[in-house]
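Troubleshooting log. The previous run stalled partway through. Resubmitting the same two chains, unchanged.
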Amino acid sequence: MLNYIWFGMMAIAVAAGIYNGKIDAVTDAAIDMAKVSVEIAIGLIGIMALWLGIMKIAEKSGLIRIIAKLLRPITVKLFPDVPPDHPAIGSIVLNMSANILGLGNAATPLGLKAMEELQELNEHKETASNAMVMFLAINTSSVQLILPATVVALMGAAASDIFLTTILATLCSTIAAIAAVKLLERMKRFSVTAEENDNG
Amino acid sequence: MVDIFVEGLSGFASYIIPLLLVGIPMYALTVKKVKVYEVFVDGAKDGFHVAVRIIPYLVAILVAVGMFRASGALDLLLQALSPVLNFVGFPPENLPLALMRPLSGSGSLGLLTDLVNEHGTDSLITKIGATMYGSSETTFYVLAVYFGSVGVVRSRHAIPAGLFADAVGAIAAVFFCKLLIG
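Second attempt completed without errors. Output:
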């Protein structure tokens, strides 16, 4: 899937770039974004280190297990393949809490920690497990209770008008994400073996 | 009323991180006698490796997205889609943002800024745009970072599910803004 999407995006970009007379801009964008990617990754190091350190303390003190237990009724439904007392569940819950509270900086390290723990349970290391896809989909649909600071800054006083609409829209997209993942994971087209045999 | 609530929430939010940074080590140190400094440093060591590990995945995805954005392909897609969307009542001004949101965080923030500059913060168009921006994440970036950090290259149904959720979120943003604000 990613093979087609990745190649398709670049192929369309070159074709559209020629058609629109923007081929130089396409070239510049490729070079620039390669640099930006590294800057983003390097920028993550400090925040990652901070939260992974705090997480380790939370883990050693048993806090993660307590948090995982609290939300057990929800997490067993969303992640049936993950044992309910596995540390991954604790990290998942913390990541979601950080997202809900609009703590983007903390959410990413917590999410990557959760991914690492889900990978321990994954039998096909290069193919996403059901739990991984579910976790990713919930993250990309962004469950959020607090508006991003950028939106508040841009909208000023009007920000309070979109408080409720944002929650409702994000709720719809999260429900859609969960439903789509549950539905698609059963399809042969998206099974682990189909993906591994597919060259595309 | 809503203003006070929103302000209260934002005010509360600024205490969460300091509370976590102090609260977790405090519980660990006083209740569980964990050697907090040693454990912190041990956990923090992984930060570097994780960040470096995602570089190839980020380069792949962000370069493709960047080329796609720069090529003007979105404008072509926009022209093709706008008759259909006009028909169903999706405001054409909001379409660029809806298409950009899953691809690029900075790109969609730029489009939202354009909406604010052109229509002002009080217009329905801008409010729909801000709702779209706030209610979704940059799907491709999150996929590259999250799956990349553990070396997963076969994403299975992650992209179809993510894009479907983005579409539902964009439509819901239009629907609720028209219902509650417009």
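Takeaways: Chain A has a mean pLDDT of 90. The longest helix of chain A spans residues 23-60.
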